[in-house]
Amino acid sequence: MDTATLRRWATPLTIGAFMLMSITGILMFFHINPGISKVAHEWLSWAMVIGVGLHVMTNWKVFSRYFSQKAAVGVIGFFAILTVVSMLIPGGDERRGPPGAMQASRVLMNAPLDKLAGITGSTLEGLQVKLQEQGLKLDATMVSLDEVAKQNQRNPTEVLNSVIAAK
Questions:
Q1: Which of 31, 67, 86, 148 is in the most buried spot, having the most CB atoms within 10 Å?
Q2: How do the pLDDT tens digits run along the chain, 167 residues long?
Q3: DSSP 143
Q4: Best CA proximity match to 144, nearest among 167, 33, 102, 119
Q5: DSSP string of 15-52?
């Protein structure tokens, strides 16, 4: 493929992929995960990588000039360091504890509310009051804490933690 054809595809691919990555990334930041947005963010990031790679290839002369500018090298260096540091700091699953803790959390989140109430030393009515005091709306069809969290667009783990902490 010649440079003009690559450029015709590379720039729109980069723009489209950037739009998808930024919108789904912002949604994930606010714990709003409609549909398959998280999966789309993870898998379609490859489109961004390919688009940027092609864009850099087709604009190499202009791109390479940035490495002669101190400010540009500083910004690029800063993000390179940030990338390495972000991989060295434990996060995600490492902060949640051992695998058994995650399994226990899932069991509690999927347990019927009346059983969860007993486990937390409360009654079903008492648990429902605790949840409502946290601004969660309940209805008779919600049979687990996971369903309550999803219906209220809240993080299930945070809702579980608040129920346990409210004891």
A1: 148
A2: 788 888 899 999 999 999 999 999 999 988 888 889 999 999 999 999 999 999 999 999 999 999 999 999 999 999 999 999 988 887 655 445 556 677 788 888 888 888 888 888 888 888 888 888 888 888 876 688 888 888 888 888 888 888 887 65
A3: -
A4: 119
A5: HHHHHHHHHHHHHHHTT---TTHHHHHHHTHHHHHHHH
